[in-house]
Amino acid sequence: MGERRSACLLAVAMALQAAAVLGGGEQQSGGGAALLDPRGLEKFVDELPDMPRLRGYGVAEGGALVAGNLTIGMYDTTWKFHRDLPATRVFAYGASRETATVPGPTIEAMRGVPTHVTWVNHLPPRHFLPWDPTLTTAAALGTRGVPTVVHLHGGVQHSSSDGHSLAWFTAGLAATGPRFSPPPYAYPNRQPPGNLWYHDHAMGLTRVNILAGLMGAYRVASPDEEAPLNLPSGEAFDRNLVLFDRDFRADGALFMNRTGNNPDVHPQWQPEYFGAVVVVNGKAWPYLRVRRRRYRFRILNASNARFFRLRLSAGLRFVHVGSDSVYLARPVATDTFLVAPSEIADVVVDFAGSIADAAVLSDDAPAPYPGDPGDKAETIAVMKFLIEDAAEPDTSAVPAALMPHYPRPDAREAATTRRITMYEYQKNGTDEPTHLYLNARSYMDPVTETPREGTSELWDVINLTDDNHPLHVHLALFAVLEQRSLRRVDEFRECMRGRNDARACGIDRHLAGGRRHVVPRQERGWKNVFKVRPSAVTRILVRFKPLSSGAASPEESRFPFDVTTGPGYVYHCHILDHEDNEMMRPMKIVR
What does this protein's UniProt record list under function (predicted)? Predict the structure, then answer.
């Protein structure tokens, strides 16, 4: 891992001199301007924005809620990330070019009320960021138009509205992918209240399009269930925080490497993208004025590859009320927590718990994560809170119980057990990964996972790499049951690379006596992403049925749409650079 960090720095230096231009446009990531030294940007000078909010439902006469219809475009525009940085060229979501933002508008949906979104591609003929022609990609390099498709992460929707990686389309639908579904996308919102996000999901271009700015928050609310909890509410006290990291050039352009760490194999692709500037809601190291009272923060890590291990100064703590798209059964207090790319931590912070007039949110996770043993991670600032006395009494609370009625994970309900193995391969004698596969198969290989609707499955996820991989399963929720380290992992890895058969390679023998790792209390509920520890086996219970409040009838065990039709669903690593290099596999759900 230390070697990888050095290789990435070397590749950045090479990229500054690279002549190959894979993208296009006026302000490019590989333009003539020098790479920006982030130490020249003053921290905490921009106020944290609250992104525009779009109501994903309508209100009929008499106050009844009805399905909402939205049209959201993807625009080639500019965005100011910092007071002292020139405007940056971005791709952004918005109801119009004038209102497009990075991140995009927050969509507010209601449980049980459908939201229909027509996603419109207004992007230019060529991308302004580089991408790699050796990866399996939505469209061949040189194709006119930027391919995009939108995935509602954590959403429970038919696969024709799930944003399949091969359902991409360019501006004006001039070109479409082989699994293209015509607009609008239908989101039933028939799932528990919680936090989702939407983002680009085009094959081989996800890391590039999200880096350009194509992401946004999505909430599903259920007032009847949530109002009795009396958590902090209202736009002033209930805020989305979308975190990501970026590098810039001195002219404000986003920087993305144009040369890969092993260009003989991949001329542009690198294993992970890390930026030196931390951005929250589109501003670099912003500040937020708060009162001495409780606030709710829905924290999304929208980075390509960076993990954040967050901590507050001034003696303040986090109280977790939800993880990913689902409320916890009971709140969990922590001083610090780790959030992987695409994970969401729903927390309450009580600023009345400190007499200080300011608090800094900071991160000390190694990059890449978990790093080499003995590495001392640098502590970096994320944002600052300026604390003022409360103007009025705080009537919000954090109850002792949140959503305890959700079914508890029970391994005995599993219909079958599968083994999912994560591999990294090296070519041309390098110790850097050049190809990443699940079960030694590429994305385009035939389907091997065929879960049955209405059942649950045990998945033993075997991580034979040095990286921690955030695993995301589309449509399904899952619960983490245990994590155990492998013993003599090099021996086991060598056997698996030759045979790809865990039983034949003696997995039980390699697990015997292996260290058991405690699943953090705030991550023991139902999730759609989890951090798969390196050189270990993570057992998860994957639920291919709706999350109900108790024992469900056969009809209630089915989704409100036909999961067997359409382009299908996928599961993948959510380090975007890995996902784009085929650490993703299709699923075919059957009945």
Answer: Multicopper oxidase that may play a role in the maintenance of inorganic phosphate homeostasis.
